[in-house]
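---------- Forwarded message ----------

FYI, see the Flagellar biosynthetic protein FlhB record below. Original note from H. follows.
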Amino acid sequence: MANKKTKSAVGIKYQDGSKNAPKVVAKGFGDLAEEIIKLAEQSGVLVHEDPYLSEFLARLDLGQEIPEQLYHVIAELIAFSYVLQGKFPESWAQTHNKLSTKA
């Protein structure tokens, strides 16, 4: 019988406009991980499945900011989740208004 790896889940939170890095706000394994994912989805929180990132984040303590070496990947995930929700930075709207479709 194959050894099934226990599912893990880590929730991070970023406060809009904050100068602080996102923090670990939830983490769990097995049934608790499934509950974290279920609650996130019910609350409209986008869920990204990445076992390698989850494994790394699971080593952090609750309330701990993500380490600097993860800033880029987490920033990309946050930015992508904003776009999926139809949220765009003000600077994008300003740039878009300046673009012309004329040839």
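H. also flagged this: Strands lie at 8-13, 23-29.
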